[in-house]
Amino acid sequence: MARIVVDVMPKPEILDPQGKAIVRALPHQGVTVFSGVRQGKRFELEVDGEVTDEILATAREAAETMLSNPVIEDVVNVSVIDDVEA
């Protein structure tokens, strides 16, 4: 079994209230080295068997049409990660 990872982030021009809340909360935890945070989404798509070019293309299409909202989000990564134990 293999996995395809899809990472989706808000477009740069879109406000990210969750990211702003996180960056404001970090100093309260003693973390002061970060000046900004953007929060996105990660999807893991499991595939029985090997990931072919066709399967990866299908994952990219699903990422663009179903897993993200193209008006406010960008798909920033679609990649295969190491095989997973069943």
TrEMBL record:
UniProt key word Ligase: yes
Biological-process GO terms, alphabetical: 'de novo' IMP biosynthetic process
Biochemical pathway: Purine metabolism; IMP biosynthesis via de novo pathway; 5-amino-1-(5-phospho-D-ribosyl)imidazole from N(2)-formyl-N(1)-(5-phospho-D-ribosyl)glycinamide: step 1/2
Keywords in alphabetical order: ATP-binding, Cytoplasm, Ligase, Nucleotide-binding, Purine biosynthesis
InterPro entries: PurS, PurS-like_sf
Leading EC class: ligase
Reactions catalysed according to its record: N(2)-formyl-N(1)-(5-phospho-beta-D-ribosyl)glycinamide + L-glutamine + ATP + H2O = 2-formamido-N(1)-(5-O-phospho-beta-D-ribosyl)acetamidine + L-glutamate + ADP + phosphate + H(+)
Location of the protein in the cell: Cytoplasm
Major subcellular site: cytoplasm
One cellular component (GO) term of this entry: cytoplasm
Molecular function GO labels: ATP binding; phosphoribosylformylglycinamidine synthase activity
Enzyme Commission identifier(s): 6.3.5.3
Source domain of life: Bacteria
Matches recorded under Pfam families: PurS (PF02700)
Gene3D superfamilies: Phosphoribosylformylglycinamidine synthase subunit PurS (3.30.1280.10)
PANTHER family: PHOSPHORIBOSYLFORMYLGLYCINAMIDINE SYNTHASE SUBUNIT PURS
Subunit structure: Part of the FGAM synthase complex composed of 1 PurL, 1 PurQ and 2 PurS subunits.
Described function: Part of the phosphoribosylformylglycinamidine synthase complex involved in the purines biosynthetic pathway. Catalyzes the ATP-dependent conversion of formylglycinamide ribonucleotide (FGAR) and glutamine to yield formylglycinamidine ribonucleotide (FGAM) and glutamate. The FGAM synthase complex is composed of three subunits. PurQ produces an ammonia molecule by converting glutamine to glutamate. PurL transfers the ammonia molecule to FGAR to form FGAM in an ATP-dependent manner.
Family of this protein: Belongs to the PurS family.
Protein name from the UniProt record: Phosphoribosylformylglycinamidine synthase subunit PurS
Gene that produces this protein: purS
